C-alpha cells in the first residue's frame, strides 16, 4: 500500500440507519471548523494563551496518535516511509489542512520530516480573532503531526513550525525530528506534551487567580497605610522606608542621578547603586534585579524610582510598587509646588530687597534666605541655552549638596545664586565647579556664567546682581559658540563705559570705528566682527586665532585684509588695535543693553 492510494471513501464507513461514521471500526464525528474555532477561543480566554496552547497540542497529539494506530493496522504498507507519508494524506483528506511534504529522511534511530501546510484552519481562526501573534499558532496541527509520527515511528517525534501565517509569514512550514535530535529552543516544545487534564489546567488557573486576588487584597491594605502617611503629612523618607521594609528591597528616588531620598535594605546596595548610577557600570544589572519607574505629574518630571533586589520581582512586588509610585508622586508633587512657591517668594522678595530695602521687612522674611545683606556676598548668574531647559538645570542645582544652604532662584532667563562669605571669595573656583558639573549632566546645553562685584551692603548687592546678569548676557553675545565664565573684575572697564560715559559719544565712536564692518556682516551674513574680536583677544597671534576660528592662516589673512579695507584701519598698529577693541566692547555692551530693554535716546 502506498500513501497516495488512500481515498476518503475507503477510509470511512457511513451507516445511514444509525447515523454513525466509523474509521477502522472507531466512531468519528463530523465537526465544523467554526465549532473547533469556538472551542479554541474559549480555551484561550479561560486558560490564557500558553495553557491553551499546551492543551490543544496534547489534543492534537492524541488525535494524530489514534489516526496513526488506525491507518497502520488497516493496510499492508510497502515500507515505513509510505506509512509516514500517509499521515499528511490523511490530515488533508480530513479537511484540517493541505499538507505538502518536502523532505523525509529516515534511519533506524531518527527521522527528519519537513513540509508545508496550506489553508490551515487554525492559523485563519487565530488571525481573525486575535490578530498576528508573536509565535506560531497551529498548535493542533503540530500536536497531530507529533502524535502521528511518534505512533508510526515508534520513538518520540516532535513537530514544530518554522514559519506560520499566524505570526505574519506568507505560509506555514513544519519541521519534525526525533526528540533526541532536538537542539536549543526546539527542546522547549517537549514541555507542552506533559500529561495534563483540563481540570488540572483550570485548577492551576484558579490557584493563580486566587494568588492574584490575595495580592490585590494585600496591596489594598498597604495602599491604605500609604494613604495614612499622606494624610498625616509624613515625609517622603518615612514613606520610602516603609515600602522598602515591605518589599525587602532597596529603594532610591533620584533626579538626574542625584539622590532625593533612599532606603537601602542592605548596606552593599548603596555601592551597587553608585556603580550603576554614577559610574555607569551596567554589569550590576546582570547580578542584581534593578528596575526603574518614572515619577511624573502634570507633565512635570519629578524624578524616578530605582528598585534594587537580588531576586526577580514577583507579581505582588509589582502591584505594591505601582501603588507606592502613586503615593510618591503625590508627595513629591506637593513638595515641588511648595518649593516652587518658595522660589517665587525669593524671586519677588529679593527684587524688593534690592529696590526698596527695609530692615524690618527683611527681618520678617529673613527665614527665606541664607544670606545677610551686610555680610560679604556676590551674585552668580547662569544663563542656559537653549532657555527651555532652564527649569531642569534649576532643579539639578537645587539637589546639589554644595548648594543645600545657598539661595538659588530664577527670574527672566537667569538662574541666580547668592555666594556668601568664603564662597564669595572663591567665586571663580565655585563657578568652574558648577560649569564642570553642568557640562557633564547637560552636554547638549551651553552655559554663560557671570559673577557680580563683591558687596557688603544692600546697595552693592544690588549692583552685584545687575553686574552678574549683564555679564552673563554679555558673554553670551560675544562668545555664543561655547560655555564661558566671566567675573566683574574682567568686565569692569566695559561696565564703567556703559555707566559713566555719554552714550551718544559711545555710539558715534563705535559706529565710526567698526560701523562699516557691522553693516557688511548684516548685509552678507558674514562673521567678520567675530573674526576681528578673536584676533584682538589673542593679541594678534595668527596661529591661535586661526585655530580658534578653524581657518587656515591664508584664509585668516584674507579676512583681516578685508576687515582693514572695510573699516580703514591698520591692525598692525597699537592705536588701531586699541580703537577696534574698545569699539567692539562698546558695541556688544550696547547690544546687551538693547536686549534688556534699556531705553536709548539714539537708534543704533
From TrEMBL:
Family matches, as SMART domains: V4R
Domain 4-vinyl reductase 4VR, chain residue ranges per copy: 116-178
Protein name: 4-vinyl reductase 4VR domain-containing protein
InterPro entries found in the cross-reference section: CdaR-like_regulators (IPR051448), NO_sig/Golgi_transp_ligand-bd (IPR024096), PucR_C-HTH_dom (IPR025736), PucR_C-HTH_sf (IPR042070), V4R (IPR004096), XylR_N (IPR010523)
Classification lineage: Bacteria, Bacillati, Bacillota, Bacilli, Bacillales
Naturally occurring in which organism (per UniProt): Siminovitchia acidinfaciens
Amino acid at each position: 500500500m502506498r500513501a497516495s492510494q488512500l481515498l476518503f471513501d475507503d477510509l470511512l464507513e457511513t451507516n445511514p440507519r444509525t447515523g454513525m461514521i466509523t474509521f477502522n471500526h472507531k466512531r468519528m464525528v463530523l465537526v465544523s471548523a467554526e465549532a473547533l474555532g469556538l472551542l479554541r477561543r474559549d480555551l484561550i480566554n479561560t486558560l490564557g494563551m500558553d495553557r491553551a496552547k499546551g492543551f490543544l497540542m496534547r489534543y492534537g497529539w492524541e488525535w494524530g496518535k489514534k489516526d496513526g494506530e488506525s491507518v497502520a493496522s488497516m493496510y499492508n504498507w510497502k515500507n515505513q516511509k509510505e506509512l509516514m507519508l500517509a499521515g499528511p494524506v490523511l490530515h488533508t483528506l480530513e479537511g484540517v489542512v493541505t499538507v505538502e511534504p518536502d523532505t523525509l529522511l529516515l534511519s533506524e534511530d531518527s527521522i527528519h520530516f519537513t513540509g508545508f501546510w496550506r489553508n490551515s484552519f487554525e492559523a485563519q481562526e487565530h488571525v481573525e480573532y486575535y490578530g498576528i501573534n508573536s509565535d506560531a499558532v497551529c498548535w493542533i496541527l503540530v500536536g497531530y503531526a507529533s502524535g502521528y509520527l511518534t505512533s508510526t515511528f515508534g520513538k518520540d517525534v516532535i513537530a514544530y513550525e518554522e514559519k506560520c501565517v499566524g505570526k505574519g509569514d506568507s505560509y506555514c512550514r513544519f519541521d519534525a525530528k526525533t526528540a533526541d535530535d532536538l537542539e536549543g529552543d526546539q527542546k522547549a516544545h517537549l514541555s507542552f506534551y506533559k500529561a495534563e487534564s483540563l481540570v488540572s489546567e483550570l485548577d492551576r488557573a484558579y490557584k493563580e487567580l486566587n494568588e492574584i486576588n490575595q495580592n490585590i487584597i494585600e496591596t489594598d491594605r498597604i495602599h491604605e497605610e500609604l494613604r495614612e502617611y499622606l494624610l498625616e503629612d509624613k515625609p517622603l523618607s518615612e514613606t520610602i522606608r516603609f515600602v522598602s521594609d515591605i518589599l525587602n528591597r532597596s529603594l532610591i528616588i533620584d533626579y538626574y542621578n542625584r539622590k532625593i531620598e533612599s532606603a537601602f535594605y542592605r548596606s552593599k546596595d548603596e555601592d551597587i547603586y553608585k556603580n550603576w548610577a554614577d559610574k555607569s557600570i551596567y554589569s550590576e544589572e546582570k547580578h542584581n534585579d534593578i528596575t526603574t519607574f518614572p515619577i511624573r505629574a502634570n507633565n512635570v518630571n519629578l524624578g524616578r524610582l530605582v528598585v534594587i533586589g537580588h531576586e526577580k520581582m514577583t507579581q505582588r512586588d509589582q502591584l505594591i510598587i505601582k501603588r507606592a509610585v502613586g503615593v510618591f508622586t503625590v508627595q513629591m508633587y506637593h513638595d515641588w509646588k511648595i518649593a516652587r512657591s518658595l522660589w517665587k517668594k525669593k524671586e519677588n522678595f529679593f527684587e524688593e530687597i534690592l529696590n526698596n530695602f527695609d530692615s524690618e521687612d527683611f527681618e520678617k522674611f529673613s527665614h527665606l534666605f541664607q544670606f545677610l545683606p551686610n555680610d560679604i556676598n556676590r551674585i552668580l548668574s547662569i544663563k542656559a541655552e537653549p532657555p527651555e531647559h532652564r527649569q531642569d538645570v534649576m532643579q539639578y542645582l537645587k539637589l546639589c549638596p554644595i548648594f543645600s544652604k545657598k539661595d538659588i532662584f530664577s527670574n527672566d532667563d537667569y538662574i541666580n545664586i547668592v555666594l556668601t562669605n568664603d564662597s564669595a571669595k572663591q567665586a571663580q573656583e565655585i563657578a568652574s565647579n558648577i560649569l564642570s558639573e553642568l557640562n557633564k549632566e547637560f552636554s547638549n546645553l551651553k552655559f554663560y556664567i557671570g559673577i557680580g562685584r563683591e558687596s557688603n551692603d544692600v546697595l552693592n548687592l544690588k549692583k552685584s546682581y545687575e553686574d552678574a546678569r549683564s555679564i552673563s548676557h554679555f558673554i553670551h553675545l560675544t562668545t555664543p559658540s561655547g560655555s564661558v565664565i566671566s567675573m566683574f573684575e574682567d568686565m569692569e572697564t566695559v561696565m564703567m563705559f556703559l555707566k559713566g560715559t555719554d552714550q551718544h559719544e559711545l555710539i558715534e565712536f563705535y559706529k565710526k570705528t567698526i560701523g562699516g564692518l557691522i553693516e557688511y556682516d548684516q548685509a552678507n551674513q558674514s562673521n567678520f566682527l567675530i573674526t576681528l574680536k578673536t584676533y584682538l583677544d589673542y593679541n594678534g597671534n595668527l596661529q591661535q586665532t586661526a585655530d580658534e576660528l578653524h581657518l587656515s592662516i591664508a584664509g585668516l589673512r584674507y579676512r583681516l585684509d578685508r576687515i582693514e579695507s572695510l573699516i580703514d584701519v591698520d591692525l598692525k598698529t597699537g592705536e588701531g588695535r586699541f580703537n577696534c577693541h574698545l569699539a567692539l566692547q562698546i558695541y556688544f555692551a550696547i547690544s546687551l543693553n538693547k536686549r534688556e530693554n534699556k531705553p536709548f535716546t539714539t537708534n543704533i
